[in-house]
Design brief:
Layout: H1 14-27, H2 35-50, H3 56-64, H4 66-75, H5 77-80, H6 87-106
Length: about 120
């Protein structure tokens, strides 16, 4: 009979802060970033985010580091959906999409001979 041992969630976010800051720098770097370096930082940050206790300290970290917040949201999507995405931004994007579709539907349809010489 095996006994499942659970490990306590981390409350010290020092390593997570360093990785989140590094990911932000990579995201906004003017110089090209190697794919393996980027993947390595993301993998390590995902490991850290998976072991962290939820709470105000984690919320502050994610508020300060949007790239880490996006990873966290994707990591927890199955449980909480897009829990950290701004509802206002999502609603604005939906309205913009509806308006664009409406404008496209109101344009006159062009026939198959449009643009060809009549002669």
């Amino acid at each position: 009979m095996s006994v499942a041992q659970s490990h306590p969630l981390k409350t010290d976010l020092t390593v997570t802060h360093v990785l989140a800051a590094l990911l932000e720098r990579l995201e906004h770097s003017a110089a090209p970033v190697g794919a393996e370096q980027y993947r390595s930082v993301v993998r390590h940050l995902l490991d850290e985010l998976g072991d962290i206790e939820s709470g105000a300290a984690l919320g502050a970290l994610l508020d300060a580091h949007p790239a880490a917040a996006e990873l966290y949201e994707n990591l927890n999507y199955q449980y909480a959906g897009l829990c950290r995405s701004s509802l206002d931004a999502a609603l604005h994007a939906e309205r913009e999409a509806r308006d664009a579709i409406g404008r496209a539907m109101q344009r006159p349809q062009k026939g198959p001979d449009h643009g060809q010489d009549q002669g």
